[in-house]
Input
Amino acid sequence: MSAARPGPWARIVARIAHKEPATPLALFRIAMGLSVLYTLLPMLRDDVVRLVWMDRAYGGFRTLTPHHWLLDAVGGASDASVTVLVGAAVVTGVLLIIGLGGRVTAFAALQLMIALFEINSGSGGGHDRLHTNGLWLLVLAPSTATLSLDCWITSKGILARSDRKDATTRSFLSTRPVAAWPRYVAVFQLVLVYGTTGLQKLGQEWMPWGDFRALYYAILAPSWQRYPTDWVADLYPLTQVGTAVTWLWEVGAPLLLLAFWYRATRDRPGFLRRLSNRIDLRSIYLAIGAFFHISLWLMMNLGPFSLVTMSFYLCAYHHDEYAALWARLTGGRARRSTSADAQPPQAAAD
Amino acid sequence: MDHLRAILVLLHVLVISVLSFPAPVGMMTERAFSHPDTQASFQSYTDALNAVGVDIDKDEFQQLLWDAGTAFISVRRKVVAPMQPYVALTGTEQGWRMFGSVNRRPAWLRVELKQDGAWRTIYEMRSDEYTWRRQQLDQERVRAVVNNFSWLHSKRTYEDFGLWLARRAAEDFPDATHLRTSMVRRALPPPDELRAHGMPEGTVLWETEYSLDKHR
Output
């Protein structure tokens, strides 16, 4: 007699308790660290920190009265306090990249970036919110379990307690399983970003009766242009196709969740499930997204928007997929997750 | 422990889902509704509805949206209020409305300088010819500030920004007497017109003059 199938709540609890190697979260951490630096260093290079984040009394362009506990503690949008906050944020960006300080570093980076973004919200955009959302997930996720200095530092202690002969060897890598749910939430966040922005593209220029002119106008508008774009008139039909595809792709974001569901339940029947898994619908969706983001980055100066958004893409893949990719690239053997991951076979790559 | 973790994770998912749900936050104003691009969108939706047999005119459609939007915002405000402390501490604010409506009549920031009694342009958005402090003014965060002006929003901030430009010009051009900022609004032309005639000259708006003497 077979065991009774667990109920929905038990399955949700089990899924959230699921563990796996931290490689995707570590890559996400590194990408977020790079994005923090890509946000701040150009501002320092172009002498913009003073202009937008310091009060008029210190060389900024307007009177600023931000409210954040960290700014209150250091003295508001003054020359000294903003310099200290930006400097500290740059340091946390570096620490995220090298993986030192674990969740404490992520929390420090989060609070610093919230404080800085709070100073003059009119000088920011959606990428500010993506940064803080991503950093909060890194506070919740043990993302320095691998690909990190933390891993290198702690590995000796772990190895010394083991029976292995190479117990003195330190390593930056580990397949120690950690909570997988922050990775799932990162993917869900991505779906929210794309899905809800698509639903709010209600201007007539996104619609058939507006002649699908949105991309044409967006490329011509001066605010974000990277280069002169008069050439866009010659590519008008292409921009119309791009407008329609962008809108459909964004409102179709829940397909990404469906693709994950199909991967997690690949042992069940169904034509769509088989098709989705065979063509890897998840990767197709993300490849289209990457194409749009890279095109946007080439044509428009939207700061770190493309980088921070695509950082979330890294959470769409399991450790074993990264290990297999690494093995293909280097011709070596994949360092797959061990039995300690305690994951059912069908979930191994979800 | 597993159950508690699951509850907390699902609460987080609930918060970000509720806050992400499309809402016309900041858009339920007479100013936003009367913007020419918004009015054009209302007309296009009304035409589309009429084409499929729905008998409604633009004013009725606009009133319907206004009533539904204000009611929804009122309910939303009450729902999200208990979530705000968590959101403020954790930076999990949502709201993703990127390029929701495209500016079809954007305005270009122009900065002019008076030297030896004559005006000359020293900066214009995206110009390769007028490039004073370009690296600073073309940086992405400054673009975000100026983008508001491009929609002809935030005039007071625009004047603050102009004052900052005047202070910098007083440093950079010791013999100049005045600085003038303006927003040059152009209706983006359709492709055939753009190919034939290029960008139109545009209409000069928000022209503001600053004496540089008081900044030296």
Notes: Chain A has a mean pLDDT of 91. The radius of gyration of chain A is 23 Å. The beta strands of chain A are 19-21, 177-179.
